[in-house]
Amino acid sequence: MDHDSSNHPDSGDLPKAPGKPRPGSQPDLPAKDLAQDLAQEPGSADVDPATSAAEEEDEARLPEAAEDTTEAIAEGPLAVGHAAIENAVRLAPTSPGVYRMLNTGNDVLYVGKAKNVRKRLASYARVNAPLPARILRMIAATVTVEIISTTTETEALLLEANLIKQLRPRFNVQLRDDKSFPYILITGDHWAPQILKHRGAQSRPGRYFGPFANAGAVNRTITALQRAFLIRSCTDGFFESRTRPCLLYQIRRCSGPCTREIDFPGYTELVREANDFLSGRSHLVKQELAGEMEKASAELEFETAALYRDRLAALSAIQSQQGINPRTVEEADVFAIHQEGGYSCVEVFFFRTGQNWGNRAYFPRAEKSYTPEEVLASFLAQFYDDKPPPKLILLSHEIEESALLADALAVKAGYKVEVSTPKRGEKKELVAHALTNAREALGRKLSDTATQSRLLEGMVTTLGLPHAPKRIEVYDNSHIQGTNAVGAMIVAGPDGFIKNQYRKFNIKSEGLTPGDDYAMMREVLERRFKRLLKPPEGDAAPIKADDDSFPQWPDLVIIDGGRGQLNAVREIFQTLGLTQVALLAVAKGPDRDAGRETLFMPDREAIKLEPRDPVLYFIQRLRDEAHRFVIGSHRKLRKKDIREAGLQEIPGIGPSRKRALLHHFGTLKEIERASIADLGKVPGVSAESARKIFEFFHAQPG
User: Fold this and answer.
1) If you ran DSSP here, which 8-state letter would residue 174 be given?
2) Number of alpha carbons in the 13 Å side-chain half-sphere of residue 535
3) Residue 584 near residue 463 (C-beta atoms within 8 A)
4) What residues contact 272, with CB distance under 8 A and at least 6 apart?
5) Which residues make beta-bridge pairs with 340?
6) Highest mean pLDDT: which range of 51-60, 295-304, 345-354
């Protein structure tokens, strides 16, 4: 979907940039700039800095296995539940509304909606009614029913979806791994618009195109669009500091507006073509480019014709990468559900402007007794709770309240929304394609989960754990001679790494001895576990052990180090009163060789595993992931610190050399990218000073 939050970038009141249009020529770029500009690849420059997010997509994961529905229901609790619901029936309205069933701990068990709340609750209160086992268990656990009246059934549906996402009730279908989708933004607040990836609030002036299924789909599309339309992806600061074209111009992925290699009218035309292509007028754009190519060829402008040829090839590459591109469907979301082994997978495809903008698999939490139609209906209401719907939604299964859902989404969106289950034609083919993907995605996830389960069971045998760990936390810290110290925690479980649970800790202790790893680890662990040990304040909801089927308390904590680190962490845990969490320290082998690690656990002899042992490989993966995450966190902190402090922190660099460096390179980022040889070419900077500057920016954290 295309959103325009500003005047079109080619509006007449924008300042014109004088230039010299040379679309077919490319100047030679000095070797120094080639080295410096490698960092201007789209992966680093096409993200809106105001709303950038981690680009590692959280992997969708399978929920906890559903409870056994054959469990016997005691007559006593069932009678108590019936009595509580009967009491609520007497007070319930006959109008639309939402009801919540609560247990003795005041936890919400179930959120439901109804056109007639009294009639719906009365159906639960019938003693001999033939109800599914999950409903009987819910009734048995219920002690209170709360009711919210609404004006219409549509309002009740929207409120129900919102409350399910907030409260995550145990007996509802739950949408998991929900996050914002990325968009492509062509900015409108600069005379030379920039193309970039954008998440979050669409407050920056420009045109937004999306949603895309994931960051990878956006990155691939932006790269191809750069080849096709030569629009810049660099930041405004980088753009303003250029005195010669960057590497992207050299490899024909930018038209070079920064140094006026193209003038304002020429660049504006490129932006118009990109907007037209993303708005669905791709056929018209390709016709225009083909015409320009033929014209240039007829006039013997073969270099210019070759440029148009390459741009046409880039456009064809975009559409070929998108796989299936419908002919009759302009804008739609396609949902298909497949169930197997007690699990559900919902595959979502996004089609905008007649193009496939990616797909994504979801694994909602639902008990085995839920039918595909029930899971899909609840999933859809929650999915669009915080997203704008398209004008058409195609489903693999007919849901009971499709008309009601369409009305509710139309109220939110402000335009008509159609929800349908196609029976024939191209729309049916799109749904069938999505269903195939749902079936394959669930099969892959079940296979991966089985492998992960075997590894966790192997840890039970190898480490002598009481049971397979559901939650593993791995800790590491990073610093350079005590500066920019940061600690990190990564989390893994039965479905692999749980990246939305990762945390970083900026070390805050005053008087910390530089490089004291024990003290840093103490601070990190105390901050982590004191928060869990602290009882909730006021109305804050307590942490539930079954929240999202993933515990907040770890079964196993892994640290990078030997017996000394293990004893230090054990002392911290004893101080905090933590006795149920298993500890494991992983010491590097001789010469830091992978496969020769030694494992340490409290009150046990050191454990040495064979280099090819799958459990050892799994532990190495956990440790390496923690190391990767903490190093990345440290580098971000260090870069921010360097940019805030400037060059004053480098020994031997005074005001004169600082001015010379900035005059030569333009920005601090360019100085950071420069090689030792390039730094040595600056007037007044000796070979020794160049080495110090380079080492300052490229020091390896410990």
Assistant:
1) B
2) 3
3) yes
4) 10
5) 343
6) 345-354
Contact present, 409 and 428 (Cβ < 8 Å): no
Tokens standing for 25? 């020529």
Position 149 scores a pLDDT of 92
Q: How far is CA 591 from CA 51, 559, 587, 596, 653, in A?
A: 42, 19, 11, 9, 36
Q: Where are the alpha helices (DSSP H) in 346-424?
A: 372-383, 402-413
Give the C-alpha distances (Å, rounded to integers) separating 685 from 343, 502, 545, 646: 65, 43, 60, 17
Cβ atoms of 253 and 232 within 8 Å: the answer is no
Report CA Rg, the chain.
Answer: 30
Tokens of 83: 């009595």
Instruction: Encode 284-294: b = buried (16+ Cβ within 10 Å), e = exposed.
Output: ebbeebeebbe
Q: What is the 3-state secondary structure (H, E, C) of 510-548?
A: CCCCCCCHHHHHHHHHHHHHHHHHCCCCCCCCCCCCCHH
CA distance linking residue 96 with residue 86, whole number of Å: 18
What pLDDT shows up at residue 546?
A: 42
Written as six digits, the tokens of 655 are: 């005001």
Give the end-to-end CA distance of the chain in Å, rounded to a whole number.
46
Contact 356, 426 (CB under 8 A): no
Per-residue three-class SS string for 460-504 = HHHHCCCCCCCCEEEEEEEEECCEEEEEEEEEEECCEECHHHCEE
CB 366 within 8 A of CB 446: no
Rounded CA separation 268/247 (Å): 21
Q: CA–CA separation, 691 vs 674, rounded Å? A: 11
Q: Output helix, strand, coil percentages for the chain, rounded to the nearest 5.
A: 45, 15, 40
Under 8 Å CB-to-CB from 283, ≥6 apart: which residues? none
Q: In whole angstroms, how far apart are CA 700 and each of 282, 478, 486, 557, 604?
A: 47, 10, 14, 26, 34
pTM over 0.70: no
Amino acid in the structure at residue 162: N
Residue 649 in this model has a pLDDT that exceeds 90: no
User: In this structure, what are the phi and psi dihedrals at residue 701, rounded to the nearest 5 degrees?
Assistant: -70, 155
* CB < 8 Å & 24+ apart, contacts of 158-162: 158/381, 158/385, 158/408, 158/411, 158/412, 159/98, 159/113, 160/98, 160/111, 160/112, 160/113, 160/381, 161/378, 161/381, 161/382, 161/384, 161/385, 162/385
Burial 161-180 (b: 16+ CB within 10 A, else e): bbbbbebbbbbbbbbbbbee
Confidence band (pLDDT; 50, 70, 90) for 680?
confident
For residues 667 and 670, give the distance between their C-alpha atoms in angstroms, rounded to a whole number.
5
| Preceding omega of 211 cis (within 30 degrees of 0) | yes
Output DSSP code: residue 109. Answer: E
* Paired residues of 503 in beta bridges: 489
pLDDT in tens, 375-415: 999 999 888 887 888 889 999 999 988 899 999 899 888 88
What is the distance between the alpha carbons of residues 405 and 376, in angstroms, rounded to a whole number? 12
Give 123-164 pLDDT, tens digit per residue: 888 877 778 888 888 998 999 999 999 989 988 998 998 898
* Sign of the torsion formed by the C-alpha atoms of 235, 238, 241 and 247: negative
Contact between 108 and 101 (Cβ < 8 Å):
yes
Burial (CB count within 10 angstroms: exposed 0-12, middle 13-18, buried 19+), residue 511: exposed
Gap between the Cα atoms of 103 and 117, Å rounded: 20
